[in-house]
C-alpha cells in the first residue's frame, strides 16, 4: 500500500513539474511574440517617418523651385525698339516677355514696317536693342545684291547724302538710312522745327534721336 502511494505521489510530482515546464515555455513564447510585434510596429513607424520626411523634402524643393521661378518671372528688364514702330523708345517689361510684347508696347508696327524683319517669338534679354526695318529697306537690300544682305555700316557717298534741313519726313524715310524709320524721322523733323527750323550740328542730331543714332546718321546726311 505504501508502495502504491509512493508511485502515485511520484506521478503527481512528475506531472506537476511537466506542467510547470510547459507553462514556462508558453509564457516565453508569448513574450517573444509580443516583442516581435513591437519590433514590427516600431519598424513600420520608422519607415513611415522616413517616407513622411522624404515627402516633406520633396515638397520643400518643389516650393523653392516654384518661388524661384516666380521671382524670375517678376524680374523687370529694359529693352529698346526703334525703326518702323509708332513710338520708338526704351520700355520696361517682365522677364520672359518676347519681341512681340515690346513692339506692342511701342504702339505696334507702322504701315511701312517689314514685320518679318524681327522674330516676334524671340524672348527678350535686359538691354536688347531691336530694330524694325522698313519695306523699303528690305527691297533695297534685295536690289543691291540679290542676297538680302547689305552692309549697314558702310558710309554713303556725298552724292547720296540727304540735306537734313530741307528733307521732309517721307524723304528721310525713303532714304533708307539704317536704323531710321518713320518714328525717328518724325522726331528729326519736329526737333528741327522747334530748333528754329534748322539742325546745326551733330550735337543737335544727338539731341533729336539720341547719342548713338545721332552719330551714325551723320554718314548719311548733310547739314546746310
Number of helices: 7
Helical content (DSSP H or I, runs of 4+): 55-70%
Instruction: Indicate the overall shape.
Output: rod-shaped
User: How much is the average pLDDT?
Assistant: 78
Uncertain runs: 146-158
SSE arrangement, N to C: HEEHEHEHHHHE
Beta-strand share of residues: 5-15%
Using only C-alpha atoms, the radius of gyration works out to 45 Å
Strand order of the largest sheet: 2-1-3
Q: SS-based structural class?
A: mainly alpha
Protein described:
Keywords: Membrane, Transmembrane, Transmembrane helix. Pfam families: HHH_3, SLBB. With about 220 residues, this protein is mainly alpha-helical. Among the domains are: about 65-130, Ubiquitin-like (UB roll); about 150-224, no CATH class. The protein is built from 7 helices and 5 strands; from the N terminus they run αββαβαβααααβ. It has helices spanning about 1-75, 100-105, 135-145, 170-175, 180-195, 200-210, 210-215, and strands at about 75-85, 90-95, 130, 160-165, 220. The chain has a 3-stranded mixed β-sheet. A two-stranded parallel sheet has the order 4-5. α5 crosses α6 (about 200-210). It is rod-shaped, with a radius of gyration of 45 Å. The termini are far apart.
Amino acid at each position: 500500500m505504501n508502495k502504491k502511494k509512493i508511485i502515485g505521489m511520484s506521478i503527481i510530482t512528475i506531472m506537476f513539474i511537466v506542467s510547470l515546464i510547459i507553462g514556462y515555455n508558453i509564457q516565453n513564447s508569448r513574450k517573444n511574440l509580443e516583442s516581435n510585434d513591437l519590433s514590427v510596429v516600431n519598424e513600420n513607424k520608422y519607415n513611415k517617418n522616413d517616407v513622411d520626411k522624404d515627402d516633406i523634402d520633396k515638397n520643400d524643393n518643389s516650393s523653392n523651385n516654384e518661388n524661384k521661378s516666380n521671382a524670375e518671372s517678376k524680374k523687370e528688364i529694359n529693352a529698346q525698339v526703334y525703326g518702323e514702330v509708332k513710338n520708338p523708345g526704351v520700355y520696361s517689361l517682365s522677364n520672359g516677355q518676347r519681341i512681340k510684347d515690346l513692339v506692342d508696347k511701342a504702339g505696334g508696327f507702322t504701315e511701312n514696317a517689314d514685320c518679318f524683319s524681327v522674330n516676334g517669338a524671340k524672348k527678350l534679354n535686359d538691354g536688347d536693342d531691336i530694330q524694325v526695318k522698313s519695306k523699303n529697306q528690305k527691297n533695297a537690300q534685295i536690289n543691291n545684291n540679290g542676297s538680302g544682305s547689305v552692309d549697314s555700316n558702310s558710309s554713303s557717298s556725298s552724292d547720296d547724302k540727304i540735306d537734313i534741313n530741307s528733307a521732309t519726313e517721307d524723304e528721310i524715310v525713303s532714304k533708307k538710312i539704317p536704323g531710321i524709320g518713320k518714328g525717328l524721322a518724325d522726331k528729326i523733323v519736329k526737333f528741327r522745327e522747334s530748333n528754329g527750323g534748322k539742325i546745326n550740328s551733330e550735337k543737335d542730331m544727338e539731341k533729336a534721336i539720341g547719342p548713338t543714332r545721332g552719330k551714325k546718321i551723320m554718314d548719311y546726311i548733310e547739314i546746310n
